[in-house]
Amino acid sequence: MAGNALGAVVVTGASTGIGRATALLLDREGYRVFAGVRKQADAESLEEAGSERLTPITIDVTEGRSIDSAKGEIERAVGSEGLVGLVNNAGVGGGGGPIEHMDLDDLRGTLEVNLLGQVAVTQAFLPQIREGKGTIVFVASIGGRVASPFMSPYNVSKFGVEALGESLRHELRPWGIDVVIVEPGSIDTEIWGKGAKVAEERVAGLSPQALRLYGKQLGRFGELLRETASRGIKPDRVAKVIHRAIRSQNPRHRYLVGVDAKVSARLKGNLPDRTFARLAGRRYKLPTDVPEK
After folding, report:
1. Which residues are catalytic?
2. Which residues pair with 139 in a beta bridge?
3. pLDDT surpassing 70 at residue 12
4. Which of 97, 258, 277, 293 places its Cα 20 to 30 Å from the Cα of 265?
5. Helix axis angle, 208-230 relative to 273-284, nearest 10°?
6. d(CA 53, CA 93)
7. Mind listing the pLDDT tens digit for each residue in 25-45?
């Protein structure tokens, strides 16, 4: 395989944001990249931006047939060389809203993509990772350590990814396979804008009782999401960390990316729970003048 000296890597969720930045960076660095997308337009955009080493491939992480098809195509392409990296990045922001009035199907849908999808993709490509003595990277979030109000589906899924990566690391240790968890803070990607839009839709769809109880808080939280989006770092920062993890002979178990992620993790790890909760509450500035019943 000409031009494939560094080996092959699969990146899921490569249409936009962190996934796209990672696929293009690894391509520039000389890896053979299989960039997972769901839409033909995204595949064409990646082909235009990348080299001949980058191959867009259709992967819907919630569909077994789609994963099996991608697996077969990549197996035929890389042969016995296997994979040097698998980047589990595909994800959604999820619906959210108050847990008291949450549609459980929204929670199931978020977990299906952000957590179960990562398991399914990892199961499919682990034999090739073993062949190539590769590294598995899970793109989690600081939201996998520090939960926010009204974002429980996203937070639950990312807390789950943290546990998934840790369990898998122990299981794969006999083969010397590294499992890395990348935990970005605020990122300048479409997910935050989509999250704010979904939050507005959730507010509009709440019952009068739910609006009476949570309307003011949800209005403030929508503002917070937009503030978060405005200060996010570029996806390229995360892509560089993922590249560092894949090329390293001894990568860290976890990489925090962004000042806000590092500060939040340090405070959460060192402060008593109640003290940290008070500090977080000051940041959220959620209204307290709400109905008692």
Report:
1. 154
2. 182
3. yes
4. 97
5. 90
6. 30
7. 999 999 999 999 999 999 999
